[in-house]
Amino acid sequence: FLNKACVIKEHEQVIAPDGSAINPWRLCTVDQVEELKAIVRVIPLWSTGIMMSLNIGGSFGLLQAKSLDRHITSHFEVPAGSFSVIMVAALFIWIVLYNRILIPLASKIRGKPIRISAKRRMGIGLLVSFLHLVTAATFETIRRKKAIKEGYLNDTHGVLKMSALWLAPQLCLGGIAEAFNGIGQNEFYYTEFPRTMSSVAASLSGLGMVAGNLVSSFVFITIENVTSRGGKEGWISDNINKGRFDKYYWVIAGFSALNLLYYLVCSWAYGPTVDEVSKCNSSSVEVNKKARVHPSSSQPPLKVN
User: Fold this and answer.
1) Coil, strand or helix at 96
2) For residue 175, which of 11, 26, 169, 203 sits 20 to 30 Å off, Cα-Cα?
3) What's the angle, vertex CA 238, arms to CA 232 and CA 243, rounded to 5?
4) The whole model's pTM is what?
5) Model confidence over 59-116: pLDDT tens digits?
6) What is the third-level CATH fold of 49-270?
7) Pick from 134, 159, 139, 164: nearest CA to 147
């Protein structure tokens, strides 16, 4: 359908004497059409990355950390806002482990270069992100029960006898998810788009984060309005012990699971990527070379007169 935009129907009415289009809105170049087709083809997979920003935006790790024991020693207490460093550290550590240890080791074991495609890394990131939310919801359920048991239901400043380092698993999973999905997205866009669209490829990830933050705000407000109807205490409360942030996490985890299924459908519909096609072609070339070097044994022998 989009190819019709570059079809010349009436030459004199659409083409200027210098060969350019009189009205660019009525006649486009082949490159313009192909660039638009590339963007349209990528949009479904791009939309799955919005959930990553929604997951991060829906995190209440700061409130959780403030309600937990953050002392490393009797005289030193880690600020609640500093616990997000764990996620960043997990991201960088995983990138180093993945590129410098895991991939080289797997390649050495298999005897050939091993590489996980960008599309698969995006999917792995979404899966780990789902596990991150499940872990966060489970931990918040345990933390809230302990807060009620210790009598801090109405105390917004109460500190539980529970180490804040229990937040580390969910934060590490969040960092690993971002390492897989974020880097996979950038690589996917750069490989699928032509070089003339490198600026578009660079901006798509940022656009996904913006869209994710908007969706996160919408979901946050909607859940708060729905759960606080009739003067009831909503899930989103200033008092983390009175609120039901665990249920909020479970709702977001449900969205994440649906998003993972949506990604699988989009990935299947998208088909092979440029890298996968080139890899398949190179494998075919290697097979043909080996076939020429080692002819089939079923070939009849040559007769010598």
Assistant:
1) helix
2) 203
3) 50
4) 0.82
5) 577 888 888 888 887 788 888 888 889 999 999 999 999 989 988 998 888 888 888 8
6) Growth Hormone; Chain: A; (1.20.1250)
7) 159
